[in-house]
Specification:
Distance between the termini: 91 Å
Largest sheet: 3 strands, antiparallel
Structural class: alpha+beta
Number of domains: 3
Length: about 210
């Protein structure tokens, strides 16, 4: 692609053309005595020198601007690479922390359940030698109550079902039986499996039998 000429270049070429034209006129007019004076020739030469000097200065200024822009571009690239590296490290660190949290999120709950497990272990050992079934039954009941207390302290709550009106937001009907009265229609008669909510969120629907 042809390089564009600057204004000073174009001016220089114009002056040079004028000089060549005047020199040609001088040559053709020597016989008639019309000769360019030395003063005029000096002025033209001076214009050419000034034009060349200005053009050179403009080219040097342009090179300095290009060098400055290249330096700014290099600095911007370096800053971008550093920010990108920091962001990648942040993502990796966040991912590791998330995985660690998911891995040990239930640690606190497990620790609170260990005493209940210990009670069950002791109850199982005493079953083989237990002679008082009422005492054994009482012990198991206490363990069951203790377990529920631990879970309730963590936000677990049992859903009421038997005797309540059937509610699709809380209950899941597995079967129906004929109602004994008009008032009994749509009422939960029996519960096959308990339902639970955790901090007001239903995590398991109660499986029930409904009168219809």
């Amino acid at each position: 692609m042809e390089k564009k000429k600057g204004p000073f270049k174009r001016m220089t070429e114009t002056i040079r053309k004028n000089i060549n034209k005047m020199s040609a006129e001088k040559q053709s007019s020597e016989d008639s005595g019309n000769v360019i004076s030395g003063e005029t020739q000096n002025e033209l030469n001076e214009q050419v020198e000034n034009s060349d000097s200005n053009d050179l200065g403009a080219e040097q200024t342009g090179e300095q601007v290009i060098i400055g822009l290249e330096q700014e571009l290099d600095a911007a690239k370096d800053k971008y690479l550093r920010i990108f590296a920091e962001f990648e490290n942040y993502k990796k660190r966040t991912y590791r922390e998330k995985m660690e949290f998911a891995k040990y999120a239930g640690e606190d709950l497990i620790l609170s359940l260990l005493p209940v497990v210990d009670d069950f272990d002791r109850a199982l050992k005493s079953i083989t030698s237990a002679s008082d079934l009422d005492a054994l039954k009482t012990g198991v009941t206490l363990i069951h109550t203790k377990l529920k207390s631990v879970l309730e302290a963590r936000g677990l709550k049992e859903i009421n079902a038997v005797g309540e009106k059937f509610n699709t937001d809380l209950h899941e009907a597995i079967t129906t039986i004929p109602a004994t009265s008009e008032e009994a229609k749509g009422v939960v008669i029996d519960q096959v499996e308990s339902g639970y909510s955790l901090n007001d969120k239903i995590i398991r629907y109660a499986k029930v039998v409904v009168a219809n």
